[in-house]
């Protein structure tokens, strides 16, 4: 093989990363493109200001799963879709305290994209996870990390995927694009000055049990 052919082959390998995604990148990109249309921004007007968070569409008719603390006892709850359209939402279920789960309903003229609920009992520490949310109002933000710890006593999944104010109620996803948890809180000893990589999510199996109980 002459020198010119070798130069061409080497140049091809050098330039390959510039236009090709790795398998890991493809997974994150495809999950985001699949799931983000089913993620919404949730704004709740409280007596002392505005509470902002994230929600996941779990039924094509407009049922949205979020965290109870996002809506609290807000007088008005507004959902902003991925396409920027706003809807007034009705709170149909609210379970606060440790479970921190709420269900909203919006009336829409067409079927919506939804997110599939996974199985949080199958997750392992070290497993790759992704989070989609609206931190500080930056809607449709994707972050990724791993399952850092599973707190069975408190029913919480710990992750180092970046979760910030506004991300609550958003999905913690496995690499199949299934929800394994609902992002709930971060450990922030400095009062939101920085994210130190300790976030928590409510296991999705708790949510599934709750939905099953309330559907008879």
Structural commentary:
The chain has helices at residues 3-15, 23-35, 68-71, 204-214, and strands at residues 39-46, 49-59, 63-66, 76-80, 86-95, 101-105, 128-133, 141-151, 156-159, 171-173, 179-186, 199-203. It is of the alpha+beta class. The chain has two domains: 36-105, Thrombin, subunit H (Beta Barrel); 120-214, Beta Barrel (Thrombin, subunit H), CATH 2.40.10.10. It has a six-stranded antiparallel β-barrel. The protein has a six-stranded antiparallel barrel with strand order 7-8-9-12-11-10. Strand 4 and strand 5 form a beta hairpin. The termini are far apart. The relative contact order is 0.16. The model is unreliable at 5-16 (pLDDT under 50).
Keywords:
216 residues, alpha+beta, single chain, 4 helices, 6-stranded antiparallel beta barrel, Thrombin, subunit H, 2 domains, 6-stranded antiparallel β-barrel
């Amino acid at each position: 093989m002459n020198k010119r052919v070798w130069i061409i082959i080497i140049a091809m390998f050098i330039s390959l990363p510039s236009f090709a995604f790795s398998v890991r990148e493809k997974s994150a990109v495809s999950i985001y493109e699949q799931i983000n249309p089913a993620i919404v921004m949730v704004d709740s007007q409280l007596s002392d200001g505005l509470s902002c968070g994230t929600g996941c569409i779990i039924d094509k008719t407009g049922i949205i799963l979020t965290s109870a603390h996002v809506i609290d006892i807000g007088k008005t709850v507004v959902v902003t879709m991925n396409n920027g359209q706003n809807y007034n939402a009705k709170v149909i279920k609210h379970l606060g305290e440790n479970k921190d789960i709420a269900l909203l309903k919006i009336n829409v003229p067409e079927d919506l994209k939804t997110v599939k609920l996974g199985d949080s009992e199958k997750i392992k520490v070290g497993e790759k996870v992704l989070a989609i949310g609206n931190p500080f109002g930056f809607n449709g933000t994707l972050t990724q990390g791993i399952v850092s710890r599973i707190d069975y006593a408190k029913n919480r999944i710990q992750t180092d995927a970046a979760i910030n104010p506004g991300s609550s109620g958003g999905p913690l996803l496995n690499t199949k694009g299934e929800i394994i948890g609902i992002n709930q809180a971060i450990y922030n000893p400095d009062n939101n000055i920085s994210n130190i990589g300790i976030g928590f999510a409510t296991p999705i199996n708790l949510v599934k049990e709750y939905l099953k109980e309330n559907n008879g």
